[in-house]
Design a protein that fits this description.
The mean pLDDT is 92. Helices cover 37% and strands 27% of the residues. Helix 3 packs parallel to helix 6. The strands form 2 sheets. A 6-stranded mixed sheet has the order 6-7-8-3-9-10, sandwiched between helices. The protein has a 4-stranded antiparallel sheet with strand order 2-1-4-5, covered by helices on one side. The chain has 235 residues and is of the alpha/beta class.
Length: 235
């Protein structure tokens, strides 16, 4: 299976602070790959560099064998990569449907079929399509952020802390939807504090600590690792 995404020796700096220290990783097409690690480990910075929201200091990012390092973020979306950012970042004053239409801005028009496809994954949003997004619950806002990303038909969807701040029952729902999206053919790169849930669904995983990859393997291998259990699974 070919790699849809390849990162080689990626470095990201914020001023004098080195957030990502020369990491290399692969995301095979059709898989769920997760990055786990403590706050400040460099996980979000890695996603932001891939999405073109921060410029790498060094290294190379390839998507479908094309060098996208430092490419403009809107062009990266048009290539087939979307990021569901930490904190959702929905348009609070717009309706649910208007948010979804914004997610399809790279297309000439928004088809009803696109909306209906999204609503099959998130039927609650269909009921609330005319509702102002800022009045949705936290779980509904996360569903909207994911739906908005789907509207551009991504080949690779990146999710940054999708379960943050959600009640356990909603966390289960979000992870079920991630699995459904994966089954439908979307490759997933997942950053998640809930390491146990992330490793349960991951084909492969990487552990980031202070900007460096310290462990990698299949999701099952990392879930059974004594070091991972002690640091991230409470074992």
């Amino acid at each position: 299976m070919r790699n849809i995404l390849e990162i080689r020796d990626l470095q990201v700096h914020y001023g004098g602070i080195e957030a990502v220290r020369g990491i290399s990783l692969d995301v095979p097409e059709g898989e769920i790959v997760t990055l786990i690690g403590a706050n400040g480990a460099g996980k979000s910075s890695t996603l932001r560099a891939i999405a073109g929201l921060v410029k790498p200091s060094a290294g190379k990012i390839s998507f479908l064998d094309e060098d996208i390092t430092g490419m403009d973020s809107s062009l990266i979306v048009s290539k087939g990569i979307t990021l569901v950012p930490e904190g959702r970042r929905i348009f609070q004053q717009m309706t649910v449907q208007e948010n979804l239409e914004m997610g399809a801005y790279i297309k000439k028009d928004v088809s009803q079929k696109d909306l209906e496809t999204v609503f099959t994954y998130f039927p609650r949003l269909k009921e609330r399509r005319k509702q102002i997004a800022g009045t949705l619950s936290g779980g509904e806002q996360q569903m909207l952020a994911m739906s908005r990303a789907l509207m551009s038909h991504p080949k690779l969807m990146m999710l940054d802390e999708p379960s943050m701040g959600l009640a356990p029952i909603l966390v289960d729902q979000i992870f079920d939807i991630i699995k459904e999206l994966h089954k439908a053919g979307t490759t997933i790169l997942l950053v998640e504090q809930n390491a146990r849930k992330a490793l349960q669904i991951a084909d492969r995983a990487y552990v980031l600590e202070t900007g460096s990859i310290t462990l990698s393997g299949t999701g099952a291998e990392l879930a059974s690792s004594d070091a991972v259990k002690k640091a991230y699974l409470g074992g």
